């Protein structure tokens, strides 16, 4: 089961809802960033303050007794690929981490706010716990099936690992759409335009609708944002 626990961490860290250790690394000073990232980092500070405040307010409104004390950090690794993810530190405090290349890839504060709001929404919706539970259930079910069909210890272990992957991915697309919906609200309440922010998807490769894919098609995500924006009165 120790191998299964490790696998669950690896499964969860394969997408934006993840629990890796880098969350404890402090953000670097803006002067330490590359020149092409420095301007974006200044924008990052303003956006993170606005989005962080709204994320905390939304978290307190939608959860009971949950940790809503968000930290928003910049990954000090200059070579890290473009990525943003939500994790938890050792105290269970929600942390949102942006790589420097991710910050530089955004074209305006609206895009940065939208991505940030999306990651905050993962925590508010409890996606790490829900995904971990799904993975654990998948591991148990697949392991039991392997045992019932006469599998040996190695076969059962392999089935558990496969079940963890399948379980973790079963609702990951739904989680992403939930985060897009709530992230739209957080972005709007923070004073940014989610309809401009969602244009970030125009530059992201479309994952399509793959079986057990971690993310839904870009068009489906844009539709979720537009529907929420319409409810907010941004679209008539």
TrEMBL record:
Gene3D superfamilies reported in the protein's UniProt record: Metalloproteases ('zincins'), catalytic domain
Domain Peptidase M48: 81-228
Keyword field: Hydrolase, Metal-binding, Metalloprotease, Protease, Signal, Zinc
The keyword Ion transport belongs to this UniProt entry's keyword annotation: no
PROSITE patterns xrefs: PROKAR_LIPOPROTEIN
Pfam families assigned: Peptidase_M48
InterPro entries cross-referenced by the UniProt entry: Mito/Outer_Membr_Metalloprot, Peptidase_M48
Residues making up the signal peptide according to the UniProt record: 1-19
Required cofactor(s): Zn(2+)
Cofactor info, note text: Binds 1 zinc ion per subunit.
Superkingdom in the source lineage: Bacteria
Presence of the UniProt keyword Metal-binding in the record: yes
Family stated for the protein in its record: Belongs to the peptidase M48 family.
Name of the featured protein: Peptidase M48
């Amino acid at each position: 089961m120790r191998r299964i626990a490790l696998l669950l961490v690896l499964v969860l860290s394969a997408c934006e809802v993840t629990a890796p250790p880098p969350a404890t690394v402090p953000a670097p000073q803006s002067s330490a960033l590359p020149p092409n990232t420095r301007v974006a980092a200044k924008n990052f500070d303003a956006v993170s303050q606005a989005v962080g405040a709204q994320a905390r307010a939304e978290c307190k409104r939608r959860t009971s007794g949950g940790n809503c004390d968000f930290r928003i950090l910049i990954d000090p690794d200059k070579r890290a690929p473009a990525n943003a993810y939500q994790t938890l530190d050792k105290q269970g405090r929600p942390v949102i981490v942006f790589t420097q290349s991710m910050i530089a890839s955004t074209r305006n504060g609206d895009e940065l706010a939208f991505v940030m709001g999306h990651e905050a929404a993962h925590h508010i919706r409890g996606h790490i716990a829900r995904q971990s539970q799904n993975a654990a259930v998948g591991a148990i079910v697949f392991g039991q099936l392997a045992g019932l069909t006469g599998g040996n210890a190695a076969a059962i272990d392999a089935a558990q690992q496969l079940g963890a992957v399948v379980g973790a991915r079963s609702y990951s697309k739904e989680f992403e759409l939930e985060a897009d919906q709530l992230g739209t609200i957080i972005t709007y309440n923070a004073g940014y335009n989610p309809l401009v922010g969602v244009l970030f998807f125009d530059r992201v490769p479309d994952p399509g609708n793959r079986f057990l894919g971690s993310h839904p098609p870009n068009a489906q995500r844009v539709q979720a944002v537009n529907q929420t924006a319409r409810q907010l009165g941004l679209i008539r």
